[in-house]
């Protein structure tokens, strides 16, 4: 482990590899379609999520959580 | 804000037909509505920020929620409630959601209670949850806001719940923090493969292991031990969350019954608020977690993990005493 509190910045190559690791994780954890959406630019990502949610709601999926008086 | 049609120019869109648009308020409109509410509040000097699902979407982790969760500075509860009360959605004014919702009042919000609001749009309500304390928060949530959103580390800490589905969100947010050069992202990675592979690129800084002893396993080559300790960490946060929710739920039973008895007939939000204050003064303690004892909660969660996972993992559990920031 690095003992340096002001850790050296990651190099562009390291960053590319970190991105690949996280992309693979997103596919594993959320599935290919959500992973694809998650790595879209912000505007397209929000648009794709909106379409997905509206489609589910039109199909009768209830997305509202119960009120509990406390946040889980 | 009404009637936006996402089909315009978008080949992926599921077009909203004229008849559909009468049935559901498009998510984009809800998001715009809540974003405007929060930005208006901020412009009026009310520190607040969107967190949870909508913040996850903003940070690149798609969540299928249409409700909005907002952190609000407890001292500004009255001002925020007044803003909410005077903000219509499609011509409808909001009210508290159900009889269970505690009042949005600094005395209770400071103690970690959540207030629920609803705009009774048809066929689905538009729901807003407000809280002043970020559950499991280890720092001030209102520091370095990302515009109208809370920071990714605040959102990630809130995802350490007793719900299985929340944990990949924490890891995804941690990965994003690392990508942005924020090494505290190491505190939020709960996937063995991600930890091992990221460690090959850049080691976790030593100072973080005081907060998360599991990082001492670097370079995470003992995969079975890593899996076991990740299991123990998640079990610990899950136990702590379960205990926390139970502590809040206990007084809510008598409070909800009292609000139900007092709330017959139609009420405005202001009228409903007065009723809830009266009932809360009798039934809801201001600081239920502090009354129970924060150290006691942590000790009980640790003891439970000692039984479910094993006593040998206890030395590897994170320090949780600093995760009650603001209480």
Pattern of helices and strands of chain B: HEHEHEHEEHHHHHHH
Which pair of chains has the greatest number of interface residues, and how are they split between the two chains? A-B, 49 and 76 residues
Task: Give the uncertain stretches of chain A in residue-range form.
Answer: none
Main sheet record of chain B: 5 strands, mixed
State the secondary-structure class of chain A.
Answer: mainly alpha
User: Kindly state the mean pLDDT of chain B as a whole number?
Assistant: 92
Question: What is the typical, i.e. mean, pLDDT of chain A?
Answer: 89
Shape descriptor of chain A reads extended
Shape of chain B: globular
Q: Segments of chain B where pLDDT lies below 50 for 5+ residues? A: 1-21
- Our Rg estimate of chain B from Cα atoms comes to 21 Å
Named CATH architecture of one domain in chain B: 2-Layer Sandwich
Helix coverage percent of residues of chain B? 40-55%
Number of strands of chain B: 5
Strand percentage of chain B lies at 5-15%
Through-space gap between termini of chain A: 34 Å
Distance between the termini of chain B: 38 Å
SSE-based structural type of chain B: alpha+beta
Give the oligomeric state of the chains in this entry, treating copies of one chain as homo and distinct chains as hetero: heterodimer
3D structure, described in words:
The complex is a heterodimer of chains A (72) and B (327). Chain A has helices spanning 12-30, 32-38, 42-58. Chain A has a domain at 12-58. The mean pLDDT of chain A is 89. Chain A is mainly alpha-helical and 72 residues long. In chain A, helix 1 (12-30) packs across helix 2 (32-38). Chain B is α+β, with helices and mostly antiparallel strands and 327 residues long. Chain B has a domain at 20-131: 2-Layer Sandwich (Beta Polymerase, domain 2), CATH 3.30.460. Helix content of chain B is 43%, strand content 7%. Chain B contains eleven helices and five strands; from the N terminus they run H-E-H-E-H-E-H-E-E-H-H-H-H-H-H-H. Chain B has a five-stranded mixed beta sheet. In chain B, a hairpin with a 6-residue loop joins strand 4 and strand 5. In chain B, helix 8 packs across helix 9 (269-283). Chain B is globular. Residues 1-21 of chain B have low confidence and may be disordered. Chains A and B meet through helix 1, helix 2 and helix 3 of A and helix 1, strand 5, helix 6, helix 7 and helix 8 of B.
């Amino acid at each position: 482990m690095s003992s340096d509190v002001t850790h050296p910045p990651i190099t562009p190559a390291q960053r590319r590899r970190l991105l690949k690791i996280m992309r693979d994780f997103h596919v594993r954890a959320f599935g290919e379609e959500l992973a694809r959406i998650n790595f879209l630019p912000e505007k397209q990502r929000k648009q794709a999520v909106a379409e997905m949610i509206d489609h589910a709601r039109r199909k009768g999926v209830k997305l509202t959580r119960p009120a509990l008086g406390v946040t889980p | 804000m009404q009637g936006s049609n996402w089909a315009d120019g978008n080949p992926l869109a599921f077009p909203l037909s004229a008849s559909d648009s009468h049935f559901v308020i498009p998510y984009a409109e809800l998001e715009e509505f809540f974003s405007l509410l929060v930005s208006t509040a901020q412009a009026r000097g009310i520190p607040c920020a969107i967190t949870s699902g909508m913040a996850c979407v903003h940070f690149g982790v798609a969540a299928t929620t249409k409700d909005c969760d907002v952190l609000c500075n407890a001292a500004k509860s009255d001002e925020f409630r007044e803003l909410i009360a005077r903000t219509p959605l499609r011509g409808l004014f909001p009210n508290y959601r159900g009889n269970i919702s505690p009042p949005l009042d600094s005395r209770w919000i400071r103690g970690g209670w959540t207030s629920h609001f609803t705009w009774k749009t048809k066929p689905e309500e538009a729901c807003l949850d407000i809280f002043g304390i970020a559950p499991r928060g280890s720092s001030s949530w209102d520091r370095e806001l990302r515009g109208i959103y809370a920071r990714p580390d605040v959102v990630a800490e809130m995802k350490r719940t007793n719900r299985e589905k929340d944990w990949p969100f924490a890891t995804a947010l941690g990965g994003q923090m690392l990508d942005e050069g924020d090494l505290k992202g190491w505190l939020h990675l709960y996937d063995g493969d991600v930890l091992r592979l990221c460690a090959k690129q850049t080691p976790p800084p030593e100072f973080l292991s005081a907060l998360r002893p599991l990082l001492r396993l670097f370079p995470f080559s003992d995969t079975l031990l890593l899996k076991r300790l990740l299991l123990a960490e998640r079990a610990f946060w899950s136990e702590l969350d379960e205990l926390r929710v139970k502590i809040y739920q206990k007084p809510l039973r008598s409070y909800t019954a009292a609000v139900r008895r007092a709330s017959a007939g139609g009420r405005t939000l202001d009228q409903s608020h007065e009723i809830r204050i009266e009932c809360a003064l009798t039934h809801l303690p201001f600081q239920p977690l502090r009354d129970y004892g924060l150290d006691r909660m942590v000790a009980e969660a640790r003891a439970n993990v000692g039984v479910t996972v094993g006593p040998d993992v206890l030395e590897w559990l994170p320090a949780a005493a600093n995760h009650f920031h603001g209480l």
